[in-house]
Please model this.
Amino acid sequence: MIHLKDSNLKIDQKITYLVGDGSVSNKAIAPYSDIVCEFLADISISLKKKNDISNYPDLIAFSFWCRKANLSILKKKFYQTSHIRMGRGIIFHVSPSNVPVNFAFSLCFGLLAGNSNIVRVSSKYMSQVEIICEVINALLNQPRYLALKDHISIVQYEYSDRVTSLLSSLCDARIIWGGDKTIQDIRQYPIAPRCIDIAFSDRYSISVLDSHTIEKITPQEISKLAADFYNDAYTMDQNACSSPHIVFWHGNPSLKGKERFWNAVYEVAAIKYELTEIKAVDKYSKLLDESIRDSNIIKVVNMENLLIYVEIKELNKNLHQYRGINGLFYSFELKEINDLADIVNNKYQTLTYYGVDKKILENFIIENNVSGIDRIVPVGRALDMDIIWDGYDIISYLSRIVDIK
Model:
């Protein structure tokens, strides 16, 4: 057992405990233990009972993910091999400030893999963090979950070399979510020889759409497609690493199909999106700056600043630098998917698609030895967090195999 409040550590005065009392078990358990699965399923149930959960689509998605039925499916898949697995010990999680519910998914991954967890959340107030921590604390006070109390510690502290360095030295694995600089900074802190890192860095995501398909679909189908695209992009103001920035129009694009798509997305945004003054200014300023200095921009369509799309002239290897914000997108007509082979690098994470045969996308990855793109999912599922993320099988990575012959 490790006690973060130990006076010899001299860090406790810097830490606010949202969950836990500073006691952290260094004893691993088996992945997908019954008590952990029951605990997470109860988190799901408790969140669904919250009166205001409808105001938080990310909380709804999280509670849906950790429901009992989904955990049972994941557990069954995990134990299809005969290997014995155990957790690694203590996981130190550094969660991002731009995706509020991310810390909860990270915690779930650590628990399901059989580990104790110290999760650092941003000092910035986020209501989703408060709601989830409130639910976790209530459950941990129930007699049946007392055994998990020293497996969950959720903390806040202002930037501190001493605290981060000490927590790094105590852990058996680190999960680092953040920008490239954040990851580089944290990797400077020494870790134990057998400690491992999973780093989820800055990534870039795109959409590939077929305009001819979109031209022909029913009004109900275009409305659903637009709503799904809106959820992928606008929900996190395009800050999520899996939110699309560029829409590639596959094949010989139909102008009517393209316009139908953008108009449908605009209609959804006009109803759902809160374009605050600061968001509007940031987006418009970015557009003006790029229009002045970038000769690759050939057309700009501004739909009342709720949706702006910028058509670009040619592909280049710096395409991942075109980053949209708050409903600013880039658009390119792609003759064939293989044209992206020399463009996609390991910065690319998620490709969402609509109207394009999945086999074409699969062949594109395999036949071109593509170095990037870790996820290919239909439009509407860009933000779906899962145990396979950024190319990692996270539960397997956070557990160890006990080889018995």
Summary: The CA atoms of residues 32 and 112 lie 5 Å apart. The first helix runs from residue 34 to 48.
